[in-house]
Amino acid sequence: MMGRKRSFNRRGPGGKKKRKKNLVEINKLAKNRIQREQEKRKPDTASSGGGILETVKDKLQLEFDSSSESEPELSAYDKLLDNLKGDKRTGSPAQEDTDESSEEDEEGAAGGGDIDDDDDLDGGSAAGSEAGSDVDLNDDLDDDLNTDLNASKLGSKVAEENLNEVEDNSDDDDDDDDDKDDMEYGMMGEEDSETIGHKENTDPYYSHFHTELTQQEVDGMKTKGLQKLGELRWPQLGCLVRSSNCESQVCKPTVLKGTTHQELHIRKRLFDQWPALNGETVVTGSSDIFSPLQRELFSTMHSYMDLMYPGMTHENAVEVRNAYCLHILNHVVKNRMAVHKHNNLLASDTTTDADDMRDQGLTRPKVLIVVPFRHTLLQIVNTIIDLLLPKGSQHVSHRKRFNDEFGDKYSGAVNPNKPEDWQKTFAGNIDDHFKIGIALSKKSLKLYAPFYQADIIISSPLGLRTIIGSKGDRKQDFDFLSSIEILVMEQTDVFMMQNWEHVLHLLDYMHLQPKESHGVDFSRVRMWALSGWNQFYRQTLLFSRLSSPEIKAVMNKYCRNFSGQLCVSNPTIDGSICQVATQLQQVFQRIKVDSFLSDSDERFTYFTTKVLPQYKDSLLQGTMIFVPSYFDYVRIRNYFRKEDVNFCQISEYSQHSDISRVRQYLIKAQRHFLLYTERFHFFHRIKLRAVHHIIFYQPPMYPHFYSELCNMLQNSSEVTDITCQVLFTKYDVQRISRLVGTKKCSEIIKSPKDVHVLISGGL
Fold first, then answer.
1. 3-class DSSP state for residue 233?
2. 194 CB-contact burial (10 Å; exposed 0-12 / middle 13-18 / buried 19+)
3. Taking the chain, what is the end-to-end CA distance rounded to the nearest angstrom?
4. Which end of the chain has fewer beta carbons closer than 10 Å to its terminal beta carbon, N or C?
């Protein structure tokens, strides 16, 4: 039986729960009490002719024992109004009553523009802000209440009682601290010289986002493709290929040599926390705050060029993650401080031209981080917290809820039979449907902020897909993607094992014109944002374990940064074939195709007419057909069913009972063929007995899968010769190079022969 939800009463049984009152309600209550008191005393004071003001003035002088020349002591209510007047002069907002446990903090809720939440100042803020409306109402009441304040001591007592009531109810409300932090945040203090002024052109942040493109340059970038500008050779990253589609805005990055926060253009508050966070990745005995890899990565990211780094492994994942978290936080902090700085300038001088202070986009979110699993998001958020807030004073809202939802869901013993890379990939909560907004202030961080009030959004492709929706859906929301300035995609290769279509769908909805204004102040929006040119200013950072045509296609089609892009491209010295321990004859069979569009059809035709008939012999019992693409898998499965081929199948949608049944089929030799998908192997990495032959319908995307499966082949009393055959076309060059090495791949591709036989250990 469902019971009625009850709220906790602080005052105990029978106590009346107090409701929080804001300043406007307090002023109105005090004014009404004063008016009622005046009406009661009106008959007595009318005959005296002196009026209530003179009577109350005499009483106040007697009570405080002050001379006619001294000022009466200010009451709590007088101090309150002085504070309100001070807020009006400095442009600071009134406090907002917020409840951090409220359900209004759900992601994607419609919010204000760039500066409309409780973490921002009101000077120059977007229209419709709640904080701004509170200040306006209080200011309107100032003139009406000033006469009443000095008219009666009772009014002061009422105000003191109401203020005490507010203080009693503010135990769980940290708005005072947030507003105070934002004031300090807006003033900027000792770092002011780096933000707005004569030094702004030395910082890549300001030189990039203050660059005004011409219509001719934009038209050229829309029509021209990427052109290779040259290559760079760096010690750690290796070969960096430079390309751009804007010849007039060519950027050539260099490795930063600085060691101070001024030289590196890093905000001091971040720079001070960096050594404690990054200490484990720095080389022992080195005085550098970066590892060699981090310094080069940060140099490329700091230039605001697009970057594709296909060398992110489990060994260097922490190094890479720390580096890009430092970059995105440095970007967000600079942006927020510039906004607060301009707010204060506009509030202090109403004649200031706001057109010179355009510092915002059409919506507030500036950074979007896309990751595949919840445990990856947990690591990123913890890195952001440790980098932004000092230890011992980390004020993070909803921290417990966050740890419960994103913590280690599978906290058990690690399966020792699984490979090391599998254990690290799936160590923790591997749910792939999530999203969260993060709002920053000087001394606090708010998790689960509504998207339109967040600075950083972290999500999975599926989590964003459910919000964005599809064309024709009744409810779609994608306005929060309109002003993203940095897009980070970590473990991009894993997205292809989940659903690559979700990634492409997300990119299709980036930087579209918003359907609503979301309370934005258009006088503060950058001109290039109003012109719809956000995509030419966005920086894209792609980190993956390997390179693939799909990832490169994203860089070519969706990344149009006018500063250009850098793609790390290094040759493979030793392919995964060197890790095959079994003495095995491996046949690489080339299939001639006319175009990329006909690749799938011609591969299928060659397999069914040339390869499959050879393996139907009873001596080739226990043949595995490894299929990387699920669409090819479905096509082959339907063909087998149509031709009544004796086979069994394992795919990513197979149940545990299906897998157990397949194991028995293979051991008892009841099935001749086994259809096996790469996605299933990625998620489960099982070992199958009684597999004697293997056909790679296409080279696997992950090269270590090749050696794992080849080493799984077993000899038996009935089968003495185990075989392996790999089918490939000229469009599989990258996959072949990861198997046999770049040098050997070049020989195979250029050779006039279509069949190449390699023996394990012969390379």
1. strand
2. buried
3. 71
4. N
